[in-house]
Design brief:
The protein is an alpha/beta fold and 160 residues long. It contains 3 helices and 7 strands; from the N terminus they run E-H-H-E-E-E-E-H-E-E.
């Protein structure tokens, strides 16, 4: 069975690698030290510090495995080296105009783990990204939302 590759931007990969580095080089040794110190206090059954440190260790090791798994199945896409065709693709930044209320909005289309609407990063699997992929500047798209259809005009596509 072939593993599915998941798209990820260069920035998304870098962020995960930084978190992994932090977990392995800073958090893991700190937790091991906390467990060692808690063991010195004697009876482990009623030692809250020991149990808290073991819980932290379990979380830390689980997160390390999760990140390593994501990175091993990631397909890193560097948008800056892609041909500037004007088409909306994974990693592109899109300026949109809501035709109905004339509000401008900018979104960057990123991988599932990178999506964060607060910083205008939307998942490639989101309804708006799916509606935009393959379109180009000047096109109009209709996005189906829970609140009804929203019409957007694509003002600009950037590969940054």
């Amino acid at each position: 069975m072939a593993f599915q590759k998941f798209p990820m931007t260069v920035g998304g990969e870098q962020k995960l690698r930084e978190e992994l580095d932090q977990l392995k080089k800073v958090d893991r040794p700190r937790i091991v030290q906390a467990i060692a110190e808690a063991r010195e206090h004697g009876d482990l059954k009623e030692n809250a510090e020991y149990h808290a440190a073991r819980e932290q260790q379990s979380f830390c090791e689980g997160r390390i495995q999760e990140i390593e798994g994501k990175l091993s199945n990631a397909q890193i896409i560097d948008i800056t080296v892609m041909p500037k065709t004007g088409k909306i693709i994974f990693g592109s930044t899109v300026s949109l105009l809501n035709v109905e209320n004339e509000k401008h909005v900018v979104y960057k289309i990123v991988g599932e783990d990178e999506a964060d609407i607060k910083v205008h990063k939307i998942s490639v699997g989101s309804p708006i990204a799916r509606a935009l992929i393959g379109k180009e500047e000047g096109d109009t798209v209709i996005v189906k939302t829970p609140g009804g259809d929203v019409e957007y005009e694509i003002e600009e596509v950037q590969y940054v």
